[in-house]
Structure formats: structure tokens, C-alpha cells
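note to self: dont lose this again. the chain is below, predicted strucutre after it. 117 aa total, dont forget to put it in the shared folder this time
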Amino acid sequence: MSDRTAIVNEIVQRRVSAIVRTNDQRLAGDAMRAAVEGGFRLGEFALTTPGALELITDFAKKPDLLLGAGTVLTVDQARAAVNAGPTLRYRLGSWSVAKRLSVCPVRSYTEIVGRGV
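---
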């Protein structure tokens, strides 16, 4: 079984994800801690959250938490997210294919229809 298949199987088994997006790094950390304490084992920090990369680095140390970076819009952000150490790795175009990263392309309603709609 490939790493990608294993990750997809883990996502399917865990079934629910804590996605944290806020304008406050401390609040984001508190929210993810509460989610993990409440039983979440799949999570994501949106890169629009201040300090998201630092939070990813901290929370990626939890062996039972499958963690990703969200709202990854550029190759530089993808590189930074990969270097931060999430379990789920998002890809952008040919760069990610070359790196053989697992991807879970998801968009929120706001990202799909655009802000202000």
C-alpha cells in the first residue's frame, strides 16, 4: 500500500476533521487543543491564520493526530507547509508531483464562490 493510499484510508477512518481558521494564533492553538482533547484525530490549520506554520510544527509532534495545512495557494506556501511538518501534504501543480505529495483538494464555500457573496 502506498503512503497516499494509507493517508486516504486514515482520513476515511477518522471521518471528521477539525479545521481551524482564525485571526488569532493563540485562539487557533487553543481551538485545536480543545478539538484534540475532545477526540478529533484529523486536523488542519488554514495558512491564513497568523502563526499557522508554527502551530503546524507544534501539533505535528502528536503521533495520533493526522494534520494538514489549508488554504495553500502558492508553491512557496506549499514548501513552507511541507517544511513545517504536517502529515497531510498539499500539492500545487508540477512541483508537488515531483515531490510525490499526498493531496486532498478541498475548498470551502467561501473559497468556491468568492468573498462577499
